Amino acid sequence: MLxxxxxxxxxxxxxxxxxxxxxxxxxIYKQYAQGRTIVTALHDVCLEVGPGEFCALMGPSGxxxxxxxxxxxxxxxxxxxxxxxxxxxxxDFSDADWTTLRRECIGLVFQAFHLLPGLSAAENxxxxxxxxxxxxxxxxxxxxxxxxAVGMRERERHRPGExxxxxxxxxxxxxxxxxxxxxxxxxxxxxxxxxRQGAEVIALLRSLPRRFGATVIVATHSREAAQQADIxxxxxxxxxxxxxxxxTL
Length: 249
Ligand code: ADP
Fold this sequence. Notes:
By secondary structure, the chain is an alpha/beta fold. It is built from eight helices and ten strands.
């Protein structure tokens, strides 16, 4: 069954649905022009991520991790190559289609949390539902469930400034979980956290495939984080190195 159901997306998708990788990247290149200089952020990246995998993209700062996640989530677009989600090409997706897809099916988690400081934890988690036109009792139950899932229900009335970094990241993860995404993309989610809080956040992300059936892709330069992954893909200067089980790290 397709994990994105929006009519527009199904109508626009043009893959044959025979390849069932949740994410499949074929020969992705991404170049940025900076004046006369061309920066190649991604070079011939091919990657397949299967359902329920916890996959780490690992490499030093500047190697292309964020760019790769942005291309997978449609926040940025490749210069060449194709992105297929659930066996369907995204070639024909408009920006509006990508926005719908992210709202309905893709959870995003960032290093800097990006919570709204004037809203409580529960209000931050509710935001995606409000933007999709959902409110009332069912929305309230979903918010409570997601806060429970990340262990932050008791802090639901607290604003971000009253929470530690790790707690803020938990709230951000709850917000990403609200639409019950099949794919969750986390860009350096432990980058602003100390090692204990970072380990807790990684353990939480690690539990999402089992608890929510989500496929999780984490960009990280933390070896400890990558050690939790089912598969680790190294990135160096925009090139993907072959995947390895975390045991080989
Ligand atoms: P990482 O997430 O691994 O730190 P990035 O994906 O952010 O790496 O960056 C990869 C390369 O692409 C870097 O050389 C960076 O400077 C360059 N880059 C990223 N975004 C842009 C941009 N908008 N314009 C120009 N260069 C960029």
